[in-house]
Design a protein that fits this description.
The protein has 8 helices and 10 strands. The strands form 3 sheets. It has a 6-stranded mixed beta sheet, sandwiched between helices. Strands 2-3 form a two-stranded antiparallel sheet. A two-stranded antiparallel ribbon has the order 5-6.
Amino acid sequence: RGADGGVLLDRLSLQVFPGEIVGVAGVEGNGQQPLSMLLSSLLPLDAGTVTVDGVPVRSGTAGAMMKAGIAVIPADRHDSGCITELSVAENLVLTSMDRYTTRGVLQREEIAARARGLIEEFAIHTPGPDTPLGQLSGGNQQRVVLARALSVKPKVLVAVQPTRGLDVGAVEYIGERLLQAAADGIGVLLVSTDLGEIAALADRIVVLFRGSIIG
């Protein structure tokens, strides 16, 4: 339920297996955002469970879903996917800062080295790792968000509207990376209002309506 007591997700039940892409289709406003928030540890359950490899994950607890192996590409990268004022390098390690911190001090050289590797691997077009993210194109900003999500080796990748607002080249690239993620054994949950995108990428499709899976 939401803060006002209204039902956001209702008896929703789905499974995502390793190596497959499950598409969640439906008109926007039928539970896509609450589902994304739940799997981002931003929304607690009133009933039900989220399990990864059979292990229940505590909902609404900061970082719990991520620690369990769920990585999320949010629908709005500027709202919750990145910080445009920070550098490309800093954005690439936002969710794993503890790995690059010693006694509260950021290890800048390690962060830069990690960023250079991801910039090359994901073909991110940027003058350098220290460039403010806001100076990159929308497609390259989304590559940063995607690179960060996949770099933590998740068990599940939740991609919410991952190609919205991107040009044709960026759309194609994101689709290829989602297919590769599944080929690497990651379970991919693709939430999109673009039926063509879901039809092209998903192995299975479920339809979301008023917070429930109806088919």
